[in-house]
Amino acid sequence: MDKEQKAIERLKIASNMSLQYYEQPLIVTTSGGKDSDVCIQLALNAGIPFEVQHNLTTADAPETVYHVRNTFKILENKGIKCSFNYPTYKGKRVTMWTLIPQKLLPPTRLMRYCCSILKEQGGKNRMITTGVRWDESVRRKNTRATYELFANKIENKILLNDNDDTRRLFENCQLKAKRIVNPIIDWTNRDIWDYINSENIPMNPLYSCGFDRVGCIGCPLANTKFRDFEFKKYPKFKQNYIRAFDRMLEQRKIKGKETQWKTGEDVFETWMQRKDVMEGQIKIQEV
Ligand code: SF4
């Protein structure tokens, strides 16, 4: 079976599960990136009922948000329901810039609190599709699977691949929880671009401007060189982070938390890993 057919079969299984357990169609989530666009095209080609949702991280590039809006217009003309999820924290709407002062630390590779609040809140008690792929990182290779079931705590998640026995277990599990299908989990970057070209899928314009991945501007998971490139293109985002770090330092002072950072600029330089942790300063990743 070729990869497209395998992915379509996974989507059909997920669609049936979604209708059976949640009595609602499968949700295809989109970040505005190429993998999401491939998943949307696969869902169209599978002929299944589905909805599309985008989590507004508030730190995405404007081009990404426009691209999602344009994709939604095309899908809505086909009768597909599309919606934006606005992130909330402690019951209130939040942005990256209002979240950082509340969390008292910048987001880091080890403390990705922003992901769970800004990107992963949608699809509670529904079956969702994501464009996660093993090819993206060793971590994903070791921690992600074709089908995933989330109970209350993330560490209790159940991971299953295509094998029939385990899939039946997943299908028969009565637990009402968020279920995820990752239909392109085994696709390589090459597979993705081949499919985009063969299906003529309109892409986020950032891919033609030197971006090989699109996501939040300044994401701590990216390397410093790429983050520098992003902040050069989007200086306003750099200012937003520095202001958020200034407000974060004010909050630390109010709460009596020690810090050797004097300004938001200091925090930014440490966060970009250009400066070693300043003498006596709390190491970001250890707090
Ligand atoms: S900045 Fe990175 S870690 Fe944070 S929400 Fe965006 S993608 Fe996730």
Describe the structure.
This protein is of the alpha/beta class. The chain folds into two domains: 3-208, Rossmann fold, CATH 3.40.50; 224-286, no CATH class. The chain is 45% helix and 11% strand. It has helices spanning 3-22, 34-46, 62-77, 96-103, 113-119, 138-143, 164-172, 189-199, 224-233, 235-254, 264-271; strands spanning 26-29, 50-55, 82-85, 88-89, 92-93, 127-129, 147-150, 158-160, 178-181. Bound molecules: iron/sulfur cluster (SF4). The site of iron/sulfur cluster (SF4) has 12 residues, from helix 5. Iron/sulfur cluster is lined by residues 57, 59, 107, 112, 114-115, 118-119, 215-216, 219, 221.
Strand content: 5-15%
- Biggest sheet: strand arrangement: 3-2-1-6-9-7-8
CATH class of the largest domain: Alpha Beta
Main sheet?
7 strands, mixed
Helix content: 40-55%
**CATH architectural grouping of the largest domain:** 3-Layer(aba) Sandwich
- Alpha-carbon Rg, integer: 20 Å
What compounds sit in this structure? iron/sulfur cluster
The tally of beta strands, per DSSP, is: 9
CATH superfamily of the largest domain: HUPs
SS summary, helix count? 11
- What is the average per-residue confidence, as pLDDT, rounded to a whole number? 89
Summarize the helix and strand pattern as letters.
HEHEHEEEHHEHEEHEHHHH
